[in-house]
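Researcher: Structure prediction, please.
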Amino acid sequence: LSSGNNGIQCSSSLLAFNLDGEGGKLGVLPVDAHGRRQRKDMTVLCAHSEPLNDFAFFPFDPNVLATCCRDEKLKLWRINNPLECASIGNAHAVLDLGIDLYLECLAPHRTASNILATVYDSRIGIVDVVQQAIALEVRVAVDEYINSIGWSYDGRLLAALGDKGRHGAILDPRSGKPIVDSLSVHSGLGRECRVIFAGTEKIVTSGFTNQRTQEIRVFDMRNWQNAECVQEYSPSTGVLIPLYDDDTKLLFLAGKGTNKLIITEIQSRSPIISPVFEYVMHDQFVGASLGSKLRLDVMSGEVVRFYQLAKNCINPVPCIVPRRSYRDFHADLFPETVGPFAGCDAAEWLNGSDLQPMRVSLDPSRKGELIANVKRNNPPEPLELNANVEQKGSPKVTKDSKYQEVLIDEHTSNSNGNAHQLPPEPPKRQTLEAPIITEKPAVEPKSGSPPEPPVRFRSDTDASTKGASRLSRVMSIVGVTSKYRHVETVPGGLHGTFTNVRCVNTRLPTESNGFCISSKYAAIPLAGSAGIVSVVRLGDIRKLPDGVVDGVQNRTPLTDLIWNPFDETRLACALDSGTVNVWTIEDNCTSLAELEPSAVYKVSHDKVISIRYNPCALDVIAVASQDHLLSIWNLENNECGWRTTPHGTDSSLAIAWSSDGRRLASVGKDLTLCIYEPARGDGENALIKRKQVLESPRAARVLFACNDTVIVLVHFTRNSSRVVTLLDSDNLEALHTSTIDTSSQLLVPHYDFDSSVLFLTGKGDRSITMFEVSRSSPFLLPMAPASFPNGHQAICLHHKIVCDVRAVEFQRGWRLTEKSLERLSFRVPRIKKELFQSDLFPRALATWIPAVSASDWFAGRNQPRLFVDLCPQGMQPYISSPVPPVRRTTMPIERPKERLQPPTTIGDCRSEALRKSAREDRKLVEMSWSDRIGVDLTLEQDRVQGVDEEEWIDDC
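Model: Predicted structure follows.
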């Protein structure tokens, strides 16, 4: 972790990596090595006496490795037979560049052979390896020294980043004015930073903000001065290592010291950095690298291979596109890639040549074309490299490769007796497609740790030879995605944030909601033992006044609080004394401190842990208390209508209702999950299923999802990893488990029934992770996470009726920090916002309208859930496909209208709402049909052709 390089480098045949505790030495293994490897089972390069600053393979000679150190010269190593498992101390070439300065980093050229860029203090030297000299030198205006460099994919430009990520430059080394532009990049002072090119027109920099938050910036060549995209991630001391694959346009981000691999896509339009997948590894990152495209198992759908260097192992992570059949080569997944031969040599590039390397096909059926072309061309005589160290000769060897047949001769005699020959030059450039195919790799950890399972991206459709060519290549790699994938989290800004929020209670129990909102008010718990809750009106966004914070007085410590979903003015507060206070907040109330509770319910003799209102029944609330009881209370008559002890002598960690209000789930400290249906009777008679589901009794949350067919369980593992587990609600069998990250605070889930979107965040987090939950594989569809500049205490979501449908806002919420209350808007980018997006807004579950009274619910008289249409009046629905034509319709028989009485009861309100919703749906259907069906007044006999007049015969 202390090294400033990526820790591991990969060529098409070798892996080189840092050895733990041996800073100047590198381990080398064949790329197809697997199983447990000890030190005696690998080749060890005793490269330098001091820790290495950087090392890299030459892209067109996979057996040559360059290393540099602050106190020694640049060294080149040729590893022809890594299976010898010997220690190598003599480099094949030592390049004395004639400078007495420290070498910080290096970067081989992407298109030309024998060109290497090196960094010493604030200067960059372009080294001609054949001539062993610095051919070009550029000085960059930085305050300290350059930390990272990277070549563009066409080999014309060079990007440099220095001063610990604060300043950068774009260079054209061969130009008369080599500095194209200077950049101001990151504001933080991290120990490390990185810069790479993403293709030929964009660069990606990795550094830190001034608050020690990992930051990625993307710059475009059209405007180098201003970042095209800025993306912040989590606070950390380890830099994000950026690795870019030009064929798939995927950007891999691996944080040093973390176990999370973030896969994103670089796009030319917003969002520039589009999240694709987040994969949690079992081990922490020490280093990372991408494998060679020439080693991919294309017949298994492997499009990229990622290598993780951990403390005791190397984990290969194949990125595989699932297809129904792998019998055929899927050309849409594998574009032509860079071949094994350079476009030009060092002298040609220095003289202005920009010839690009030949691109080859990975199609196995065209395997022999490149071999035939290589054999027909006589390679030129090998070039000689004079080395100023004594070299040992090596016999003639044949490269073990399936994509070229070239004999490499390494002679040991010349005029000085110490010459080393480079590999033969590539054949003359021809117009061809040279396929590459290799045997299936099986790189596995060098220790006993098992390899990582592949990251699989599920595909929507099969690969068809005709349709696949029209599909986006990245979409094929991404596979099944959520229609909410590119969700935009829009903060409230100056006009949507309460400022000067003070005395926020940051020590509430883990089981608490943190704060809660209704459609009119927000309730914020205040610090102290008096259980004071401040209430702010959401429609009056402003800076809160100074002085004593006003609030309702519970006079005992607060444990949980929740608004009545059917009455936006009634707030329930659970207390440490076993009491639930219900407060009624009126607009004309001048002082909250003078209010008295409108109702007080003694629900337990011990502390109340959690309270949850029934989502369908009016004034029905579930209470979990410290005395191991789980009870359901009728607030109409202050009676306990049902109770049980779900976890024996242990208490509950969390409770949750199903969306239809018929089932109640409880997860407890005995590691079990219990599902009850109170209508069946008291106690164990109502138990549907019980099963052990937790690893740790530390904390957990539970909720129902996917129309109550899935149970979402959020909990900890034994090593403090935050995990989301999906269970089948019928038998509690595990459907899917996903590790989110590692933290000391529990992830609190929030679920939107209509969109099936799961929001995950914890106390102190600076981000909100979102997934669309599915009943079938892949179960959790990732969405773009929301990031914020500071941490928050909690978030809370509104009813669906509050959302601005015209702005394509599918959810709205609030974020509470220690000093502010900020509004959040979750929107989906759409072009035709003037039309109602029916795919994003299905008929919404009316969580703000009760379906049944408390007495009817306890009597077992349940009613179906109520759904309403969210389409605003006068807004036309968006129809993506034309309505099938209909020839003729019949006029409906008009019936006399019934005179409806005004609704008086809950049941009448529900029936009236259903009838109104049905009438609105019928009107929308009639309008859409009338707009698209023309009036046809043509009769069938008008279409019949008669005969000519002369064909009639007069028999008379």
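Model: Residues 238 and 256 are 5 Å apart (CA to CA).
Researcher: Thanks, that helps.
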